[in-house]
Specification:
Elements lengths: L2 H16 L13 H6 L35 H8 L10 E3 L8 E6 L2 E10 L6 H18 L3 E11 L1 H4 L2 H17 L2 E9 L4 E10 L14 E5 L5 H9 L5 H11 L4 H10 L3 E4 L4 H13 L1 E6 L9 H6 L5 H10 L3 E3 L7 H5 L8 E6 L3 H10 L6 E9 L3 E5 L32 H5 L6 H13 L6 H15 L2 H13 L4 H15 L1 H10 L3
Length: 523
């Protein structure tokens, strides 16, 4: 008898005597794999062809994909509330505020930022899943305004039934993404587990005066989202074989994109607050922001950037149970306006995997923030709401941006009234005022139209401001020109670019436009 045969006989004899497989006490001996494949995993034998060859794709083995595999927020909060609170003065951010990462001060000018994130596959490809797991884990450090330095991998994987290759690809994908982020993998931990789980514990650093938490949002702030929503819905659709190739590709690209550049823009622009949007969904994570900041936030459904196909899937009822759990957790904080599509809240509660940063900063900086985010690769970045007032914590979801009398002056130029926040010359009459006697409701509709037209879109904020300068010169609108020259200065647009745009207006407006520019333009 060979050594291998002797080992099999010895191990199986023990299992049969116990009445249970010594590798898995839930199974009898001989187990199904032995009966079907003549392989005894307990004796160290390996399948020549791993079971993964019979079940292609990682998600086919998962009950819950991506961050939908996490413990529901309400359950987690209930359990954590029973733990004793930390009292060390060096702990600047801990469990109490449910922030993205812990912050521990180690010197007067340096803090550690620490986090861990592990979840189930949200794509079929192991290498791609590894990349997404790294992005998702690093994101918590970026949300705090920190710089990630080192990482430890944590993996649960059925090594006996799936073989080596998928695990290697997961680790390789994660390592490549860590290298892209400039983060060093220093070790890790592995568990032989039936359901795949993967992620990283990450350590970073941040200056004490540069920490961005979920508790700093202020009335007058804009809310900006750096990535589109819908990864959870698409992953769930993919598990059922109902996600299009376009949706799957777009979701995978979004999830495997680092939030590093977005974080750097956020810090440079002086954000008041931030959180990353992951397993608790947009409204679940915003719940933490409004509660900890003590404010009411307004979010606009029609401003939400969505991945391809997400609205259609949600309208068909496609969505995981994680969205319902998030609704249970955050619903008491949310007030939904009438007229919202039935599926809108399903998307806003959708559990995201490796989602974007949700950033609060002064509204005057919002256009420039979006412009810089798009220039940094966040092409779907958008203003999706605002912080309205101080409160005990509330979220109002509306179809679109609502007017606030405190922010819209009756003296503003018609092309700027909905969004500029800068008054025109005293006594200047707007088209809205002139139209009021003849067409009630027209001024409001026109303001909304102009707000939509002038908001950043395919053309970013800088491009649109330069176009408005050119048009203001061409049509010789003095209030428009003055307001948008000021906006150009606030956005840091070089004077020579403004002058070049103005002369484009002269070219189309003729001699009268030239005289107007020379008289009203900057000296």
């Amino acid at each position: 008898m060979s050594e291998a045969s002797s080992k099999r006989a010895r191990v199986m004899a023990r299992s049969k005597a116990l009445g249970h497989c010594i590798c898995d006490p839930r199974k009898n001996c001989p187990c199904d794999i032995f009966l079907q494949r003549d392989v005894c995993l307990c004796a160290g034998e390996r399948l020549e062809e791993p079971l993964s060859a019979e079940k292609p794709g990682l998600m086919k083995r998962m009950k819950n994909a991506g961050c939908a595999s996490k413990i529901p927020a309400a359950d987690l909060a209930r359990i954590l509330s029973r733990l004793p609170a930390a009292s060390d003065p060096r702990l600047l951010v801990g469990l109490a505020t449910a922030d993205d990462a812990g912050v521990f001060q180690i010197s007067p000018d340096l803090c550690l930022v620490q986090t861990v994130d592990v979840f189930a596959p949200c794509v079929d490809d192991p290498y791609q899943f590894g990349q997404i797991a790294a992005c998702n884990s690093l994101s918590d450090v970026y949300a705090m305004g920190g710089a990630a330095l080192t990482a430890l991998s944590i993996i649960g994987y059925p090594i006996h039934t799936l073989g080596d290759e998928a695990m290697y690809q997961m680790l390789k994908g994660g390592l490549d993404k860590l290298n892209e982020a400039g983060v060093l993998l220093v070790g890790g931990h592995s568990i032989n587990e039936e359901e795949i789980k993967f992620g990283f514990a990450v350590t970073g650093v941040v200056r004490p005066d540069a920490i961005v938490t979920n508790a700093g949002a202020q009335p007058g702030d804009a809310l900006i989202l750096s990535k589109p929503l819908g990864t959870g819905i698409i992953s769930f659709a993919a598990q059922m074989g109902r996600a299009s190739a376009e949706s799957a590709r777009a979701a995978a690209l979004s999830m495997s994109t680092l939030n590093k550049s977005a974080s750097e823009v956020m810090v440079r622009m002086g954000a008041h607050a931030c959180t990353d949007v992951t397993g608790f969904g947009l409204l679940g994570h915003l719940r933490h922001v409004v509660r900890e900041s003590g404010v009411t936030a307004e979010v606009w459904w029609e401003a939400m950037p969505l991945l391809p196909g997400v609205a259609e899937y949600a309208a068909q009822g496609i969505g995981s149970g994680a969205a319902e759990r998030n609704r249970e957790f955050a619903g008491a904080f949310v007030e939904a306006a009438k007229g919202l599509p039935e599926h809108a809240l399903d998307i806003l509660y959708d559990a995201q995997t490796s989602g974007g940063l949700l950033i609060a900063l002064p509204e005057a900086k919002a256009a420039e923030m979006v412009s810089q985010l798009r220039a940094a690769g966040c092409r779907d970045a958008a203003v999706i709401g605002r912080v309205v007032e101080k409160s005990k914590g509330k979220i109002v979801v509306t179809r679109k941006k609502t007017d606030s009398p405190a922010r819209v002056s009756a003296k503003q130029s018609p092309c700027c009234a909905a969004h500029s926040g800068v008054e025109s010359a005293p006594g200047a009459e707007s088209c809205s005022q002139a139209a009021s006697p003849a067409a009630p409701g027209a001024p409001e509709a026109f303001k909304q139209f102009m707000a939509a037209v002038t908001a950043p879109g395919t053309l970013d904020a800088v491009q649109k401001e330069l176009m408005i300068v050119a048009l203001s010169v061409a049509v010789q609108c003095e209030p428009c020109l003055r307001i948008h020259l000021e906006k150009c200065r606030n956005l840091g647009i070089a004077p020579e670019r403004v002058r070049e745009a103005a002369w484009m207006g002269v070219a189309f407006g003729g001699c009268k436009a030239m005289m107007f520019w020379q008289e009203k333009g900057p000296a």
